[in-house]
UniProtKB/TrEMBL annotation:
The lineage of its organism: Bacteria, Pseudomonadati, Pseudomonadota, Gammaproteobacteria, Enterobacterales. This is Outer membrane protein. The keyword Signal applies. InterPro entries: Arylsulfotran_N (IPR035391), ASST_N_sf (IPR038477). Keywords: Signal. It comes from Salmonella enterica subsp. enterica serovar Sanjuan.
Length: 200
């Protein structure tokens, strides 16, 4: 009788624990409890050059929402050509969000989007703008609104004679890489990776 009771208790405990999602454990689940990429608007992240073949394109991810009736406008720079287009609803599913093309190279583009966001029975018409820097050459862009250029410039104020023949490697010029924020990071991390991540 006691053995049968213990076996039943064990089976019940295993069933309960196996139904609890891993995100409730201390490590925060396989992908962590924290979303690390920047969301500029009311839907998902901005992915620059999403297929690694067209640096002047982007996708604004849908963030898990159903989108409809999307209109995109690339605000022209001075003496530039306006690009504006509607996105067919089937392409919103193909790209997993809003496809953006026709960005200006080496420029912080302003992209205006209008769309209908559907969540359950709630429908909301949204108009917002995104800032996207498109690099002049194939260089990974993070898709954040703070990004202003692909490469950095150095303004040397004073050259000391003892340092005139030295070459320095500047590493970690960006806080986070666009692809790195979509990587699975289990918390807590240790070793060198902790120095790479700047938690706020």
């Amino acid at each position: 009788m006691k053995f049968k009771y213990a076996l039943t208790s064990l089976a019940l405990s295993v069933a309960i624990l196996s139904s609890v999602p891993s995100t409730s454990f201390a490590i925060g689940g396989a992908s962590g409890a924290k979303v690390d990429y920047q969301v500029q608007g009311k839907i998902g992240e901005v992915v620059m050059n999403p297929y690694d073949i067209a640096p002047l394109t982007a996708v604004i991810r849908n963030g898990g929402y159903q989108l409809r009736d999307v209109h995109v406008r690339i605000v022209p720079k001075e003496n530039g050509q306006e690009i504006a287009y509607k996105v067919n609803n089937k392409y919103l599913l193909t790209y997993g969000g809003i496809p953006v093309f026709g960005l200006y190279p080496d420029y912080v583009n302003t992209v205006e989007v209008e769309y209908t966001r559907i969540q359950g029975s709630k429908t909301e018409n949204i108009k917002e703008s995104y800032k996207m820097y498109a690099p002049p050459a194939y260089i990974e862009s993070a898709g954040t609104k703070e990004e202003q250029s692909a490469l950095f410039t150095i303004d040397v104020k004073k050259v000391s004679p003892e340092f005139k023949d030295r070459l320095y490697l500047l590493n970690n010029t960006k806080d986070k890489s666009g692809n790195g924020t979509r990587t699975v990071w289990n918390n807590p991390t240790g070793g060198g990776i902790r120095m790479e991540l700047h938690y706020s």
